[in-house]
Specification:
The protein contains ten helices and seven strands. With about 425 residues, it is an alpha+beta fold. A five-stranded mixed sheet has the order 1-3-4-7-6, with helices on one face. Its EC number is 2.7.13.3.
Length: about 425
């Protein structure tokens, strides 16, 4: 229902504005603001100033009604032109009003203002501050402001003209404030949308690394193992190829999932899940798969209750274990055992992954480093945790992450 109403409202704005300006024009004409157009320039008097005011009014109204078709630079130019003509008209009225009135039939200039032209200039002022290019808007805005305020003072300074100028000043200030407020709100919304899109891209980059690199690393390790045993034990090659095929299929599945999320995500929403959710079952599957692929022993120890973990914490635990096991495959050699130890305490969860191997030497084409640990540290920091890496006391390497479980600690991140 909302999507149907908005186009109708948007389409009705400018016809409504045109109707209101036309009504104001009829009101000004009924008050004699534009004088008699026939013979207005036969002599310089109130009828001449009325004709000048009518021309200035038509220009301001035309610029306002044409504003939807003007760009960020065209709109300030149109507003500046309308304001310049209005200021020129004010100067002409001031000069004509000071001419001596001696001849018969000359009508003196009394009230040199109407409502239609100020209304159009106020609309141009609001739109220019809202949509105009900053430099050109800064130049045309003072001209519009002055054109609205100075017109009542064209003939002279008196009690009535001061009161009218005061109300016009309030109206111009309100128009300036409205335009500036809308501009700042839109700029802030765009900034937040850009920030959300950047966060989404960063999150997608982490997930692509976590899921795809994990499976690809397994494929590389298995291919290296199959090549090394092909000559000595060829019967082990077909099972290794099956495992490579399975890991490749999992990598493609993960990549399709991530690409699908990239295509389907609605950037206007900030509550879109940016990554596949995972829990303890997926953590156990990771450890079991690692033992199957690597040929070494992998153990999972879980001390405490992990049934009621917040979604973001459970998913982060899964990512920590995935990245640590991927790094063991990439950078460790001669390892026989990998231990994944999860501890739940009152303050949070400690995830510790350690192996008993040695650093891998660069032979042939290295598996290389990347953004895994950096992305992991960023992911953990989002929910208020921290990551520490370094040599384990008993040898090998250890990755340890501490994650808070308190729902009040950035649970909506």
């Amino acid at each position: 229902m909302r999507s149907r109403i908005r186009p109708w409202l948007h389409a009705a704005v400018w016809p409504t504005a045109a109707a209101l300006l036309f009504g104001l024009g009829l009101f000004d004409h009924s008050l004699g603001a534009f004088g008699r157009l026939v013979g207005a320039f036969d002599r310089l008097d109130a009828h001449t100033t009325g004709a000048l005011m009518l021309g200035s009014t038509l220009l301001a109204v035309g610029a306002l009604l044409a504003s939807p078709r003007l760009g960020a630079r065209g709109l300030p130019w149109a507003a500046g032109a309308a304001a310049g003509v209005s200021l020129g008209t004010t100067v002409a009225i001031h000069v004509i009003a000071r001419l001596p009135v001696g001849a018969q039939g000359i009508t003196p200039v009394r009230d040199p203002y109407a409502l239609t032209e100020p209304a159009a200039l106020l609309g141009l002022l609001t739109l220019t501050v809202w949509r105009g290019a900053p430099l050109w808007a800064a130049l045309s805005t003072p001209a519009c402001f002055a054109a609205v305020i100075l017109r009542p003072l064209a003939v002279g300074v008196g009690e009535t003209t001061l009161v009218v100028a005061f109300f016009f000043t309030l109206a111009a200030t309100a128009a300036l404030g409205i335009g500036l407020t809308v501009r700042l709100v839109i700029a802030d919304r765009r900034r937040r949308e850009a920030s959300v899109r950047m966060e989404q891209r960063t999150e997608f980059a982490r997930d692509l690394h976590d899921f795809v690199a994990h499976h690809v690393t397994g494929i590389v390790i298995q291919a290296q193992g199959a090549r090394s045993v092909a000559a000595r034990r060829p019967e082990l090659v077909p099972p290794a190829l099956e495992r490579i095929e399975h890991a490749g299929a999992e990598a493609l599945k993960s990549m399709r999932s991530m690409v699908g999320m990239l295509r389907d995500v609605d950037e206007s929403r900030t509550d879109v899940p940016l990554a596949p959710l995972a829990g303890m079952a997926e953590v156990r599957a990771l450890v079991e798969e690692f033992a199957t692929v690597g040929g070494s022993r992998a153990r999972l120890r879980a001390d405490g209750d992990f049934a009621d973990l917040p979604v973001e914490v459970a998913t982060t635990v899964h990512r920590v274990v995935m990245e640590a096991l991927t790094n063991v495959r990439k950078h460790s050699r001669d390892y026989t055992e990998v231990e994944v130890h999860l501890t739940r305490s009152a303050g949070g969860i400690t995830v510790r992954i350690s192996d008993d191997g040695r650093p891998r030497q660069a032979v042939g084409q290295p598996l290389g480093g990347g953004f895994g640990l950096k992305g992991l540290a960023e992911r953990v920091a989002v929910i208020g945790g921290r990551v520490r890496t370094g040599p384990a006391p008993a040898g090998g390497w250890r990755v340890e992450a501490t994650l808070p479980v308190d729902h009040r600690v950035r649970s909506a991140a």
